[in-house]
Amino acid sequence: MSRKLTVILLAMLVLVGAMSLKTVVTTHANGTVTVLAVGGAPVPTPWQVGGAPVPTPWK
Amino acid sequence: MLGPTDWVIWILATIFEAAVVVCSLRRQAFRRYFFLNLFMLLTVLVSLGRFRVLMHYGRSSIEYRYFYFYSDALLVILLYFALISLYSRVFEEMRVERYVRFGAVLLLGGTAWFSYAVVSQSSSRMLTHFAFELSQNLYFVGLVLTYALWGAILKLRETRALLVQLVLSLGVYFSAYAASYAISNLHPDLFSHMVYLFPIIGCLLPLAWAYAIWRVPEEARLAPSRLAVIPR
Fold first, then answer.
1. Assigned domain for A32 exists
2. For residue B50, what are the CA distances in angstroms to B57, B99, B129, B137, B153?
3. Which of B135, B183, B193, B114 is nearest to A28 (CA)?
4. Which one of A5, A12, A38, B174 has the minimum C-beta count within 10 Å?
5. Nearest chain A Cα distance for residue B162, angstroms
6. Would you place residue B23 in the very low, low, confident or very high pLDDT band (cuts 50, 70, 90)?
């Protein structure tokens, strides 16, 4: 197998692994939106709620 | 309104981010770790921009929300390239930079395609949703890539102390984010207690990088036995 095909296979494996991990992590979410973000700036208000379910983002 | 804790965390994070760039310049490592420094420099600028938008429009405004999530998408893409630059450093002796770059672009494209496929199902504001979904997905891609890089470091018995510390800091950062993300999804009632956790984690990465760049000389080496014991 050529090196390029190996790289393609590895990239796809990483993508599948990452998205599977995200799916596992968010499977039990009950509508609360958690945001991962860079830096220490406060997350915009609509995302910071308690246990109450929030509407679909941006709708 | 922001409370004093919000302000303290935000100011500390911005100071630590600026400290990474200053330490790199003082240690003449700016060009060596160009993407790491570019990411930190842009994070400082984005923090200043967010401060201006927040003061002008308020935290619950649509302007702050747009600025926050679009700038975050940009920062995460830069963080992704910073991580790829660490890959290039680890594999530089194997002369596979071309393949690392090819894989990085392919993976970024794949993540973008996946994000588009998700948001195209149910979104009217396509671009906004796409930017948000892409940034969230890239965090998980970054997490997997960091663990893969750590595996490569162990396998190749990498001994450059600074490089190892930078990668480990990134691993702790992504792991802490993923764990907090999982906990807040599994136990939404805990979310109100974890509201400061994400910004605090955001402070720790620049602090660890600034410390590593300032304290660990480029020529410092770790004893291989400290990394792993591999029976022959």
1. yes
2. 10, 37, 19, 22, 37
3. B183
4. A5
5. 22
6. very high
pLDDT digits (tens, 9 = 90+) for A1-55: 688 899 999 999 999 999 998 888 777 665 555 666 676 677 775 443 333 333 3
Contact residues, chain A to chain B, C-beta under 8 Å: 3-4, 7-8, 10-12, 14-15, 17-19, 21-22, 25-26, 28-30, 32, 34-46, 48-51, 56-59
- Specify the CATH number for B4-221; select among 1.10.10, 4.10.860, 1.10.3470, 1.20.1070: 1.20.1070
Checking ipTM against 0.90, whether it exceeds it is no
pTM for the model stands at 0.86
pLDDT at A35: 65
Report if residue A23 sits inside a domain.
yes
A54 min Cα distance to partner chain B (Å)? 12
How many alpha carbons lie under 13 Å from residue B181 in its C-beta half-sphere?
Answer: 23
